[in-house]
Design brief:
The protein is α/β, with parallel strands linked by helices. It has two domains: 121 residues, NAD(P)-binding Rossmann-like Domain (Rossmann fold), CATH 3.40.50; 176 residues, Dihydrodipicolinate Reductase, domain 2.
């Protein structure tokens, strides 16, 4: 077994409360410390997890013992700090979406390549073994030819006006916060990129004129369509429904998959089968996968090039709902 990778965390965002314990549970991770612009917040987290507190992001990046960083800052700050980390020689696991625009993603990818470090996008759900099992079931034709995919990922945080996604900064809103999941899962299950997108959004001046609820239609080759409903002021829902020529595949708890929530359902000719999957923490799987890539044990599954492609679709969706027009996705 390879030596554990020494990690640091840049920021004390709420998601770290799920990610850090999962990292600590992995034998492939040695978590060194956490940084914040507010030292007291870093110290509070450091005491809780038994790690070191750093006074600011630059201090953590200056520590030569740290090999990789996890970056959970607000979306608008991803590019700056991912590139600073890469320039410091650190491998970077960046929260989704990696970038606000395709141009930004390309610059981040180029910086990582120039400094010979890995840059990955943190789509934890797809590190769960269930994702590979779903992809295999589709490849085997369990539901016939895939005709359409429908994703719903919604929650209601509209009362939390201090939420980083509600500040009107670039990368704010439902498309970036949860729409990126719908884009990611469809691209990877279909194994190709969409030709065009059409999106309609409901915006809110109270939340910084961002899209609070967005409907998307993504047109894929061979007539396959993908629809999605994503939102930040709707009741909780987290599902994928894949329609095939012979049956359908349903995924409950599609993205926020707890250790006991992994099973999915295949229905063909009225007969329903529950497919049981291993019970794992997908955040732990994510940390282990990235650490293994750092150690050269395998290729990074969702690398910077993949994030560039995903950012291209995010760009198109955003242009579509803002303009009210169908937008072609061109490389």
């Amino acid at each position: 077994m390879s030596a554990p990778v020494r990690w640091g965390v840049l920021g004390v965002a709420g998601i770290t409360e799920a990610v850090i314990p999962a990292m600590l549970a992995s034998e492939s991770v040695e978590l060194v410390g956490i940084a914040s612009r507010n030292l007291a917040r870093a110290e509070e987290a450091a005491v809780r997890y038994g790690i070191k507190a750093f006074d600011g992001y630059r201090a953590l990046l200056a520590d030569p013992s740290i090999e990789a960083v996890y970056l959970p800052t607000p979306n608008a700050q991803h590019a700056e700090w991912a590139m600073r980390a890469a320039a410091a020689g650190k491998h970077v696991l960046c929260e989704k979406p990696m970038a606000v625009t395709e141009a930004e993603a390309r610059e981040m990818a180029a910086t990582a390549a120039a400094h010979n470090v890995l840059l990955g996008e943190a789509f934890m759900y797809a590190q769960h073994p269930r994702f590979a099992m779903i992809a295999q079931a589709l490849a085997q034709g369990r539901i016939g030819d895939v005709r359409a995919i429908h994703t719903v990922f919604t929650f209601d945080a509209s009362a939390e006006l201090g939420h980083s996604g509600f500040q009107g900064a670039p990368g704010s809103g439902a498309t970036y916060d949860v729409g990126c999941y719908a884009i990611h899962v469809t691209r990877h299950l279909l194994g190709c990129e969409p030709d065009a997108v059409t999106a309609h959004a409901a915006t809110s001046a109270l939340h910084g004129d961002i899209d609070m609820s967005t409907s998307m239609l993504m047109e894929f080759p061979l007539g396959v369509s993908s629809t999605a409903q994503v939102g930040m002021w709707s009741t909780d829902q987290d599902t994928i429904e894949i329609t095939g020529s012979r049956g359908r595949l349903s995924v409950p708890h599609a993205f926020l998959c707890g250790p006991d929530d992994g099973d999915f359902i295949i229905t063909v000719d009225g007969v329903t089968e529950v497919i049981e999957v291993p019970r794992v923490n997908h955040y732990t799987s994510q940390a282990e996968h990235f650490s293994g890539a750092v150690r050269g044990e395998h290729q990074l599954r969702f690398d910077a090039a993949d994030a560039v492609a995903g950012s291209r679709v995010l760009d198109a969706v955003t242009r579509s709902w803002r303009s009210g027009t169908r937008v072609e996705v061109t490389s």
